[in-house]
Amino acid sequence: MPAPLSSDLRRRVHDAALAATAAEVATRFGVSMRTVYRLRQLVRRGGTTDPRAHGGGRSRHIADEDRPHFEAYLAEDVSTTHAEMATRFASVSGRVVTRQTVQARLAAWGITRKKNSSAPPSETAPT
Questions:
Q1: pTM higher than 0.70 for the full model?
Q2: Cα(25)–Cα(65) distance, rounded to whole angstroms?
Q3: Cβ-based neighbour number of residue 78 at 10 Å
Q4: Potential cystine with 105: which of 55, 62, 121, 123 (Cβ 3.0-4.6 Å)?
Q5: pLDDT digits over 89-125, tens only?
Q6: Continuous segment of H or E residues that includes residue 84
Q7: CB neighbourhood size of 89 (10 A)
């Protein structure tokens, strides 16, 4: 996503749009006509040409407060798969998550695991 136009350019585009058509202003400043329309609308609604704040994005499906659930799952059985943890978490919390979400959150928390202990060396062939 491109960065918003500078405050100075936004103000100049809006001021010019008050005296000229959107097509003339767009050509003069090298912006799209839609930008001119949106700046006009922004001033009508909020009284300023400043860019709006970021919307914030989606919330996490697994919050940091949910970490003890996953640590308990691994404490019970270290070979629990991500899909099994996702299913158990959904039954406890009522929030459906995917195995990929579980995997990403465990990685973000720095929780690593080794599912099985090392197997003994083979006696019949070199390993």
A1: no
A2: 51
A3: 12
A4: 62
A5: 999 999 999 999 999 999 999 988 765 566 666 677 6
A6: helix 82-93
A7: 22
